[in-house]
User: What shape does this take?
Amino acid sequence: MELVEVKKLQVELDAFARKDVYLHLETTNGSYASHFNESFFNAGAFIRNVVINYELGKVVGDSPHRVGLKLPHGWVYAQGITHYELDDQGRLLLAGHDGAGKLAVALQISETPFSY
Amino acid sequence: MTIPQERHVLVVFPHPDDEAFGVSGTITTHIQQGTPVTYACLTLGEMGRNLGNPPFATRESLPEVRKKELQASADAMGLTDLRMMGLRDKTIEFEDDEKMVSMMTDLIEELNPSKIITFYPDFAVHPDHEATARAVVRAVRRMKDRPTLHGVAFANNTVEVLGQPDVIFDIREVRDQKMNSMKAHISQTAWMLEEMEHKLQQGDTATENWLTKERFYNYRWHEDFEKTF
Assistant: This one.
């Protein structure tokens, strides 16, 4: 993965627009957050292999970036994106890693389903 | 306490590295005593968050990394019967409960273990740990001749509710194997091992204790976590 360069990532996002694509979106604090700090309110969300078709995808802001996908009837967005890569299977993998190297958010787009 | 001889030991945990911290010394000792040990690892830890910054893996490449680490940990313990059960990290509690019990029942019927090690229900913190523990207890509950069931418990209220562990194994003779099992899972354990080495150098007895003893609770059937299932 490399650090997001807005112009380069924007090109990649554009390439997946107006196609049926598989989405992976997750945000998490890890399952142990409330074990280590009992007052911590642990929330997260996970979506994998839901098909969407976005008409416009945009990466904005300084790092950590925000990435939004505009759908005909709705939105998908992720906040905290720091890194990305177009992997060897042509999938666009975006991730937000905190200072300790822990994944905090992932947003991934692929024309083929992600593995189970 | 020396480790009693068993016919066959079945270890069931959901994540690669769950075996390393709490039970790798016990597993190694059983193997050295000639007892067959099977480790059924339910997921590949696909949702692990320690991916580094800069990242050394992606969400999609992590399962392959962790699969290799799990195999390396098995090698470090001398374990030859490693089962990867194909479930997905952080989804076990959402699986069909009866399907989970069947998975455990199938393993038990095939292997006929005299002892099973898993997490202790309600004291295992992570939702996957809890779901795994529930499935194992439910499967064993239905058996006529129940094997010994040892639970690993580490919730903050464990000692308050369960008291001190009633099974403590001295594993200092296989300390190196335990260390190597933990090191095998380097993508998850790097920062923790660094902190541990530091504490050991300072002569921290709590850390030293952790490498010399492993603690379990005999499952308390008279205080079963649920009445029926």
Remarks:
- Helices of chain B lie at 18-32, 62-77, 97-111, 127-141, 158-162, 175-184, 186-201, 205-210.
- The beta strands of chain B are 9-13, 37-41, 81-84, 115-119, 148-152, 167-170, 213-218.
- The domain at 9-218 of chain B is CATH 3.40.50.10320 (Rossmann fold).
- The first helix of chain B runs from residue 18 to 32.
